[in-house]
């Protein structure tokens, strides 16, 4: 149980017990002073307990209430107090302290729209001041009695205005909704209620009257507010949304605004005198404050609109930049396509001449056949141009792949026939190097595939195998059916893969450590292309085998091709 | 029997000479054109047994020449072999749709071209 609850559980019954004793008796006085005194001590204790960021407001509350208690004590011992009595001095001195405490708390809490809170508090206070003047202070000042009596009886309602001024600022600040705040509201309202009732009929009051209840309750609630742990949050700066006009705040402000016409009307009906100067002064002040407040709201709206405009401008600029960038991208894409087409045509035409004329020059049926030396030179030209052509083809293939233009031309075919044919075509190259190449397969394995692409894939794998298998080695190719698909294997007895390279060989431009060390020519594109083809068929490719033990490439192909993306763009497709 | 006449059309002089040289060694008689319009004129004038047409020629391209040949009642039976470097699938399809008898991709081996030509004239 929290300190504030314990405190309330003890003190609230005490208030009840107070009224069980005879009115104006000693027992009542003791309980009354006990409540007031412990409240002051409780506030001081609470400040030490909770260590709020701002201690001064709470110490001011303690001080104000201490002055009230002193006033109470004095009035007990003065049976027939003079006017003004010494008690009045302490009472009246207590209000500014409490009001200052409230004001300080509000200033600490409402960090953001402080001026708006202050304006609202001022409007509210002015409305209350008009009421106080018209119904309490005015009659008191004008009534019979000495000058001192007039001043003192006029000062109490004035102090209530001061208290409300401090409270109203806090009331309209965003410090709502903490238990400590609610206790504080209760304490202030109880004090005000007691004062107002007393002020309306000061002569009718006697010690032990029910009005004492409100003052005792006020003591208790001040202390409860201080004892509740949430008192620390009260004085903390809060992030409040600018321009938030809560419903309660509007009601309070509206009530304050209608005070002037309401007072005019009531006094007219009652046929009572009216202080025109006071009404005019307070009415004008309220009007000016409202105008200031409205101006503030309009300015804030304008600022918001300005920010919104700026944000929109930025968004539009970003949009425009995006459009330009998009156009540039489209242009870059078009240039790339043009470039690919250019390579395709302008590299092929001279290559056609090189390959063709070298072949013509080496023709055995010529009348003057070449001598061996010149023939060997031309063979180098021939091999080099074939390599160049292959590189051009590979680069073109990759360019198409990246443009998303790799479109398969599928047909239901026997994989074994394709493999056998490919192996047959590679045999001369393998035999020239002294490598035995054989296809170990029979029967038919029907799958849906692009014959040209499967050929290309196999050619890449076989070229690699021949390149990396030394004379005397062998290359075996297998094609076997599996559940809904086929498996294709190319295994060689070549130099193998270094550990960890099995995953990397399919990367673009990857060269294995061995190829680099032994300076075996290559571009590192063949296996990248092989993987692209396998994946385009919805299959996968993997490499295996231990270092120095040869390499096995395994391709798994499904029986059915996956749906092809962009197969409608076949018209724009380039064919190598 | 006199040597069969072959029309060779290519805008690239070197390729034109390459094809011509190879086919002359095979014993064919060659008539050369360096653009599509000239190729069509020579086809009408000389009535060759076969035409080797480059697809990528300025003006009338190889496929357009082929279309004119197939549209002409007198020339309809001429064999046509298309050559291309640009090798666009649409070109190939257009070529076959227009009635090409064969299609050879650049760069080609002259020996391979000669084989295809002899097959077509067999």
What's a quick, concise take on this entry?
The complex is a heterodimer of chains A (576) and B (122). Chain A is of the alpha+beta class and 576 residues long. In chain A, 66% of the residues lie in helices and 7% in strands.
Q: Taking strands numbered 1, 2, ... along the chain, how are they ordered across the largest sheet of chain B?
A: 2-1-3-4-5
List the secondary-structure elements of chain A in sequence, H or E.
HHHHHHHHHHHHHEHEEHEEHHEE
Low-confidence stretches of chain B: none
Largest protein interface? Answer: A-B, 24 and 21 residues
- Low-confidence segments of chain A, given as residue ranges, are 566-576
- Computed Rg of chain A: 50 Å
Shape of chain A: rod-shaped
Query: What is the tally of helical segments of chain B?
Result: 5
Which tags fit this structure?
heterodimer; A: 576 residues; alpha+beta; five-stranded mixed β-sheet; two-stranded antiparallel ribbon; 17 helices; rod-shaped; B: 122 residues; alpha/beta; five-stranded parallel β-sheet; 5 helices
In words, what does this structure look like?
Chain A has helices at 3-20, 26-50, 56-77, 86-109, 114-142, 147-171, 179-200, 211-227, 231-234, 247-257, 259-270, 276-361, 372-402, 415-432, 451-468, 513-517, 526-536, and strands at residues 411-414, 436-440, 446-449, 474-482, 485-492, 540-544, 552-558. With 576 residues, chain A is α+β, with helices and mostly antiparallel strands. In chain A, the strands form 2 sheets. Chain A has a 5-stranded mixed sheet with strand order 2-4-5-7-6. In chain A, helix 3 (56-77) runs antiparallel to helix 4, helix 6 packs antiparallel against helix 7 and helix 12 (276-361) packs antiparallel against helix 13 (372-402). Chain B is built from 5 helices and 5 strands, in the order E-H-E-H-E-H-E-H-E-H. Helices cover 45% and strands 20% of the residues of chain B. A 5-stranded parallel sheet of chain B has the order 2-1-3-4-5, with helices on both faces. Chain B is of the alpha/beta class. In chain B, strand 3, helix 3 (62-71) and strand 4 form a beta-alpha-beta unit. Chain B has helices at residues 13-25, 36-46, 62-71, 89-97, 110-121; strands at 5-9, 29-33, 50-54, 79-84, 102-105. The mean pLDDT of chain B is 88. Chain A binds chain B through residues 341, 344-345, 348-349, 351-357, 359-360, 363, 365, 389, 570-576, and chain B through 12, 14-15, 18, 21-22, 25, 56, 85-90, 92, 106-111.
């Amino acid at each position: 149980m929290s300190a504030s609850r314990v405190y309330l559980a003890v003190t609230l019954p005490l208030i009840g017990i107070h009224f069980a004793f005879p009115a104006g008796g000693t027992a009542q006085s003791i309980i009354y002073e006990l409540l007031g005194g412990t409240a002051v001590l409780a506030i001081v204790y609470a400040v030490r307990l909770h260590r709020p960021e701002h201690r001064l407001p709470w110490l001011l509350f303690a001080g104000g209430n201490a002055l009230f208690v002193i006033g109470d004590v004095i009035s007990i011992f003065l049976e027939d107090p003079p006017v003004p009595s010494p008690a009045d001095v302490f009472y009246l001195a207590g209000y500014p302290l409490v009001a200052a405490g409230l004001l300080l708390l509000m200033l600490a809490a409402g960090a953001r729209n402080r001026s708006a809170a202050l304006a609202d508090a001022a409007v509210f206070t002015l409305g209350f001041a008009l009421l106080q003047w018209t119904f309490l202070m005015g009659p008191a000042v004008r009534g019979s009695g000495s000058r001192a009596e007039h001043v003192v009886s006029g000062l109490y309602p004035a102090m209530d205005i001061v208290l409300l001024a401090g409270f109203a600022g806090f009331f309209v600040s965003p410090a709502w909704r903490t238990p400590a705040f609610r206790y504080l509201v209760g304490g202030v309202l109880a004090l005000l209620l007691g004062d107002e009732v007393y002020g309306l009929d000061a002569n009718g009051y006697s010690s032990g009257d029910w009005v004492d209840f409100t003052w005792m309750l006020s003591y208790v609630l001040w202390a409860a507010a201080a004892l509740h742990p949430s008192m620390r949050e009260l004085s903390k700066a809060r992030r409040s949304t600018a321009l938030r006009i809560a419903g309660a705040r509007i009601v309070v402000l509206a009530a304050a605004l209608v005070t002037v016409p309401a007072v005019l009307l009531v006094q007219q009906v009652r046929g009572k005198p009216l202080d025109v100067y006071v009404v005019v002064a307070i009415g004008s002040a309220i009007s000016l404050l409202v105008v200031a407040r409205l101006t503030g709201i309009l300015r804030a709206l304008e600022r918001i609109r300005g920010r919104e405009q700026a944000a929109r401008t930025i968004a539009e600029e970003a949009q425009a930049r995006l459009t330009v960038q998009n156009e540039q991208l489209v242009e870059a894409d078009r240039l790339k396509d043009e470039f690919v087409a250019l390579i395709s045509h302008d590299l092929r035409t001279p290559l056609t001449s090189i390959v063709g004329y070298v072949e013509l020059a080496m023709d055995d049926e010529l009348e003057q056949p070449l001598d061996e030396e010149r023939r060997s030179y031309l063979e180098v030209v021939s091999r080099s141009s074939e390599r160049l052509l292959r590189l051009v083809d590979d680069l073109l293939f990759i360019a198409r792949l990246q443009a998303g233009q790799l479109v398969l031309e599928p047909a239901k075919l026997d994989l074994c026939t394709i493999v056998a044919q490919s192996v047959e075509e590679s045999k001369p190259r393998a035999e020239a190097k002294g490598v035995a190449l054989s296809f170990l397969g029979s029967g038919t394995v029907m799958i849906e595939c692009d014959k040209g692409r499967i050929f290309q894939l196999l050619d890449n794998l076989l070229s690699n195998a021949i390149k990396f298998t030394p004379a005397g080695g062998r290359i075996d190719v297998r094609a076997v059916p599996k559940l809904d698909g086929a498996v294709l294997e190319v295994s060689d007895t070549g130099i193998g893969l270094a550990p960890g390279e099995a995953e990397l060989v399919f990367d673009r431009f990857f060269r294995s450590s061995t190829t680099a060390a032994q300076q075996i020519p290559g571009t590192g594109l063949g296996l990248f292309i092989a993987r692209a083809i396998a994946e385009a068929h919805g299959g996968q490719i993997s490499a295996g085998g231990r270092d120095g033990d040869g390499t096995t490439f395994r391709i798994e192909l499904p029986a059915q091709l996956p749906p092809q993306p962009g197969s409608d763009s076949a018209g724009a497709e380039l064919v190598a | 029997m006199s040597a069969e006449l072959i029309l060779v059309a290519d805008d690239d002089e070197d390729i034109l000479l390459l094809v011509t040289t190879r086919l002359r060694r095979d014993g064919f008689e060659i008539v050369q054109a360096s653009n599509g319009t000239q190729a069509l004129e020579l086809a009408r004038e000389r009535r060759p047994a076969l035409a080797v047409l480059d697809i990528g020629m300025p003006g009338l391209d190889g496929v357009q020449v082929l279309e004119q040949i197939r549209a002409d009642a007198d020339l309809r039976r001429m064999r046509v072999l298309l050559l291309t470097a640009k090798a666009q699938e649409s070109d190939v399809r257009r070529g076959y749709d227009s009635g090409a008898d064969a299609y050879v991709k650049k760069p080609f081996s002259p020996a391979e071209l000669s084989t295809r030509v002899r097959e077509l004239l067999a």
